[in-house]
Amino acid sequence: MKELPLIIDDRETPKFWVNRRTMVDQEILERERAEIFDRCWLYVGHESELPNVNDFKTRRVGGRSVIFTRSRDNEINVLVNTCPHRGMIVESRASGNGRLLRCFYHGWAFNTAGDLISMPDEESYPDGWSKAERCLPRPAFIDNYRGFYFLCWDGEQKQSLEEYLGGATDFIDLIADQSDTLMQVAPGTHLYSIKANWKLLVENSFDGYHALTTHNRYIQMVTASGADMKSRMTGRDGASNFPGGGLDLGNGHAAVANADQSGGDYAGTLSRAFQDKETQALHRERRDGLVARYGEHWTDRMLGGRNVLIFPNLMLIDLGMGCTIRTFYPEEPDYMEVTAWEISPPEMDERLLKLRLSDFLTFWGPAGLATPDDIEALERCQRGYRAHGIDPWNDISRGMGKQRPKTDDELQMRAFWRRYNELLTGEAARPEVEVYRRVARQSAA
Amino acid sequence: MTEVVLGADLVLRLEVEAFLFHEMELLDTWQLDDWLELWTEELSYLIPATDKPDGDPDEDLMFVQDDRFLLTQRVRSLMNGTAWVESPHSTTRHMTANVRASVRDDGVVQAKVNFVVYRSQGSSLNAFPGHSHYELVRGGEYGFRIAKKRVVLDLEELRPHGRVAILL
User: Fold this and answer.
1) Strands A306-310, B62-66: pairing kind
2) End-to-end CA distance of chain B
3) Do B52 and B92 contact (CB within 8 A), yes or no?
4) CA distances, B104 to each of A123, A410, B108, B112, B135 (Å)
5) Least CA distance to A360: which residue of chain B?
6) Which listed site, A23, A127, B34, B66, has its alpha carbon 20 to 30 Å from A168?
7) pLDDT tens across A205-221, in order?
8) Which residues lie closer than 8 Å to A249 by C-beta, 6 or more apart?
9) Assessment of whether the complete model's pTM goes beyond 0.80
10) How many Å separate Cα A55 from the centre of its chain?
């Protein structure tokens, strides 16, 4: 029996269907690991997480344990957390600071650049045996774009990080430009999990269509805080000189984005209302500072909403009231681990920062008033896929055929799925709308 | 003299325990509106992130930092069916132990408590072990009101739980 395709991309009808087998099948997961996670650039961490020399963080990237370090020469490194001697995990602490990373098994010790420094009884190794050949291994490539560090496991990767990111670099600029110095990841990490396929979180992370139903309780909260939800939610797409809506950024990257058109009246559609004039004044002050540096247009984009996928598994979601860096990885077809950080401009007034942290966890946190309902929705989808043999198809057709898809359409998901399908099957598809092109960053300085 | 102090400590602990047992019963029976009545008007309900158990809500990313407004909204959504994650309600059991209570100079009663909360829904069962730090003021029908409750999970990651949608 011929296997059904992974996607049906019918431009005539038009309709876009995704095979639910991609959500449940172990063999497909193995192909994803080989063709996607072992080949694409993957997010590791942000420079601000390592403020001091010899700081380190351990984390899993693409399923492998790595040590993210700032070494004595002030370089940022990504080392694979496996001892060259017998392969043991070298560093088991989640984070720390120390001159040496020590494998307790036989006592081999490495510096934070990964060089093998010492081991007991070195004299017993034969002549010609060299410590220099037994450093901690590194991924094939490491690079950063404005403090956001990525690795690539594939030595055959032809694209530099910047080429790989393409038009998505604008969307990293829109975050990085919010600080004069370096954006700062807050201490405290949301380390959680979802019993669902990882691609469901890709879709959910920029799904404008589900907001009013799944997040009814969050919107009730924002309304009860005194915010005029109606004016916040309507008439936002396409009303400014940045058209907004769903965007195909190329290479599988995609986004929903719009610009702030309030002139600084509020700090984002989903923020709790400012309860006093003082906070509102502080927010306007911040906006004025950004306008002075970058002009109205870039500032409006900066303070608007953006849910951005950096293919395959990094979401940068900045909704004005806060910004999350979210990455996730499939441990099983029906189980993913999610890690999320908050990032802020360090020069932000502490009263605004406090509000920002509160808004962040209340919306994006796994104990907030929104994300637990997303998690529940994704897990119930996954349970529904036990019937994938009865109805094999998810429908992702919303807004298909529109020249200018909106933020609650599904163009951004189709851009992801087309690239996904191409990497797994080799079948490339032409873009549905014109691919977003990088604009020259409008720095005033 | 020593015996008198010991007796007072014991009475205080029993008073605090009776209050906490009542609180846990309200939570396990989903009488959350009554549970909200146990709090003072100004309140702080905190859960730090698992990798930052000493987290400060002014500077660090937490799991929960509810004031009265947010806690009221949380309770309302858990009771009116819009919190899909708890619709239908899961079955929970709050266990409280190792209660240590003391009176601060300003009269606020501080209580340190170890706990485990079991949550079951369908075929899944999760345990949330942790310790809480209460600040209680005298008053109310049950002897105290909660001014502050800081709940620290004894988990290094929220996995495989994925979420804390119930009240701990």
Assistant:
1) unpaired
2) 38
3) no
4) 62, 57, 5, 13, 10
5) B61
6) A23
7) 999 999 999 999 999 99
8) A166, A167, A168, A171, A255, A308, A415, A435, A436
9) yes
10) 23
Structure tokens at A26: 């172990």
pLDDT for A440 equals: 66
- Segment A130-159, tens digit of pLDDT: 999 999 999 999 999 999 999 999 999 999
What is d(CA B38, CA A267) in angstroms, rounded to the nearest whole number?
A: 33
Q: Please tell me which of the candidates A195, A214, A342 has its beta carbon nearest to residue B61.
A: A342
Measured between beta carbons, the chain A residues lying within 8 angstroms of B130 are none
Q: Are strands A184-185 and A323-332 parallel, antiparallel or unpaired?
A: unpaired
CB A417 within 8 A of CB A395: no
Question: Are B163 and A192 inside 8 Å of each other by CB?
Answer: yes
Contacts of B161 in chain A (CB under 8 A): 192-193
Measure in Å the smallest separation between the Cα of A382 and chain B Cα atoms: 14
Q: What tokens were used for A250? A: 């190329």
- Tally A–B CB contacts below 8 A: 132
Q: Could you give the 3-state DSSP secondary structure of residue A257?
A: strand
- pLDDT above 70 (res B133): yes
Give B49's contacts in chain A (Cβ within 8 Å). Answer: 188-191
Cβ-count burial of B157 within 10 angstroms (0-12 exposed, 13-18 middle, 19+ buried)? middle
Contact A140, A38 (CB under 8 A): no
